[in-house]
Amino acid sequence: MLNRTADTLARATPSRVARKVRGLSDRGVAWLFIAPTMLLLLAINIFPLVWAIGLSFTNYRANRPNEPIKNVGLQNYQRILGDSDIWIAMQTTAHFVLWTIVLQTLIGFALAYLIDRKFRGHAFWTTIILIPMMLSPAVVGNFWRFLYQPQTGLFAYAVSFFTGIPNTSIDMLGSVGAAPWAIVIVDTWMWTPYVMLICLAGLRSIPDYIYEAAEVDRASPWRQFWSITLPMALPFIMLAVLFRGIENFKMFDMVNLLTGGGPGSTTEVASITLKRQAFESWRTGYSSAFAIILFVAVFGLANIYVKALNRVKQR
């Protein structure tokens, strides 16, 4: 009996013996390692969200911590939904999100399609294209702010060279009509490489034998693009649109560095309005309600979009 038990223990792996001694299954061991990280993430993300929800129903001001906190119910939400300035900021945000997504998707997919041809030196050019994405937003903002200077900026000189307009009259950041497009250009320059990488992954995932079969059927390159390349890369394109849409909806650093929301309120996106309400007007309860509305809007739109993405992937 003792010899049989010794043979059984010898055949068992050390990890299985340790688990049996401790009474833990594979799932239990996995949760043992995952639980601390999950608790930390919940503490970092869930607690501020719950705290903000609680503050959104109050008149709390962070610069007056000793004043009694009064529960105002849904009053903050009603004021936000009826505030015309808030709706103007939302329209400005929608303008940025729409145009940056359109430009980044078109240019990013075009670059990915060209690089996927694997021409000579494609690795070098891929690295060059990725450089803007590697830079800090603070560096990019200050760099483009210098380029946009009417007197000394290279952008003004380039526009003046092609149009004949004096460079001193080309003020991209100070013009009401040009300032929104100036930010769109900078964000597109910085994040198009990110979209390109995702689209390139989609193009590289298409098996070669599908193209070989299409060539046997004498399908033209244009037909192959519309019938094979675009449909099979579409889930990756939609994924890139989802990521950039969420990030651009929260756009703050680039706008704050380039224009600060100006001239006037032309480039005042929702995040800039939120910052002013929270840290300039010190309407903490009001700004918390605005933050919750933005969160619900982004979460709801992303949820609808993910369902559409799943339907495309299942085709």
UniProtKB/TrEMBL annotation:
Keyword field contains Transmembrane: yes
Name this protein carries in UniProt: Sugar ABC transporter permease
Stretch forming the signal peptide: none
Domain ABC transmembrane type-1: 90-305
Family: Belongs to the binding-protein-dependent transport system permease family.
Keyword annotations from UniProtKB, A to Z: Membrane, Transmembrane, Transmembrane helix, Transport
Organism per entry: Devosia nanyangense
Membrane topology label: Multi-pass membrane protein
Transmembrane stretches, start-end: 29-53, 96-115, 122-144, 181-203, 224-246, 286-306
A Pfam short name: BPD_transp_1
A GO BP entry: transmembrane transport
Localization per record: Cell membrane
Domain of life: Bacteria
Annotated Gene Ontology cellular component terms: plasma membrane
InterPro entries reported for this sequence: MalF_N (IPR035277), MetI-like (IPR000515), MetI-like_sf (IPR035906), Sugar_ABC_transporter (IPR052730)
